[in-house]
Amino acid sequence: MARLTATNRARVGITYPNQLTGERLAVWLRADSLDLTDGAAVSAWGDESKSGANPASQATALNRPTYKTNILNGLPVVRFDGTNAFMDGKLTVAARSVFAVVNYTGGTPFPDYDGAIGGQNNDAANVGIVGYGGNAAIYPTSVTNHRVNGVATAAFTDPTSYHTVYLENPSGAYSASYRIAQDRATTSRRWIGDIAEILIYTTTLS
Q1: Cβ(162)–Cβ(73) under 8 Å?
Q2: How far apart are CA 91 and CA 71, in angstroms?
Q3: pTM of the model
Q4: What is the rounded CA–CA span in Å between residue 1 and residue 5?
Q5: pLDDT tens digits along 3-58
Q6: Which of the residue ranges 63-77, 106-120, 181-195 has the most confident prediction, judged by mean pLDDT?
Q7: Is cis: bond before 109, omega within 30 of 0?
Q8: What is the mean predicted confidence (pLDDT) over 93-98?
Q9: β-bridge mates for residue 43, sequence order
Q10: Tell me: the pLDDT tens digits for 124-173?
Q11: What stretches of 113-201 adopt beta strand conformation (E)?
Q12: Closest by alpha carbon to 79, among 100, 96, 103?
């Protein structure tokens, strides 16, 4: 996530997601790419992938999340209030792998399918990283390759710290759109907490 100059990148030899996967990285949202002040409303979250074609946005002022600085290792996050805030984006291909760096602050277990990232449609195939029916898990549990902080598990039991969460769906999901901080079309299932980064790939990575 750290913002580096081109010179610094070359010197330290950092490999970025675009270099690893090329066009297979469909969406890359980074809180540290936003040029905002602390407490500002986030109306648009630019896509840092190679195409840059799939940003997230929120046109309604009431539903915009908040930009918070110096939260995660000195870097910013986008904060969702669990009541009003969510964002939407478009996709032209099916999502098959999703990474998210998140901190859920609504307590444990998840109240009921509160969503960090998934599809906009009210369709069971279009879900992603959401609380599973009041259990501390990632839905859909039928998908075999879930990882939390690199460990093969669907459990998401610690609401007090940040997690890197990975979900893989070989059959593909939410091919036309994606939604951040709300489970599909259900307004009562909104994420409360911070999101620092989201990556959506068009292929499985394992």
Answers
A1: no
A2: 29
A3: 0.83
A4: 13
A5: 333 333 333 334 455 555 556 898 999 999 999 999 999 999 999 998 899 999 99
A6: 63-77
A7: yes
A8: 80
A9: none
A10: 555 567 665 555 556 655 566 777 888 877 766 665 678 788 777 766 66
A11: 115-118, 129-132, 135-138, 146-148, 151-152, 163-173, 177-180, 192-201
A12: 103
End-to-end, the C-alpha distance of the chain in Å comes to 22
Phi, psi of 190, deg, nearest 5? -100, 140
Residue type (1 letter), 68: K
Residue 121 and residue 185 in contact, taking contact as beta carbons nearer than 8 Å: yes
User: Can you list the positions of beta strands (E) in the chain?
Assistant: 25-30, 44-45, 56-57, 66-72, 75-81, 87-90, 95-104, 115-118, 129-132, 135-138, 146-148, 151-152, 163-173, 177-180, 192-201
Q: Would you say how long the chain is, in residues?
A: 206
User: What distance in Å separates the CA atoms of residue 183 and residue 54, rounded to the nearest whole number?
Assistant: 19
Residues 6 or more apart in contact with residue 6 via CB below 8 angstroms:
none
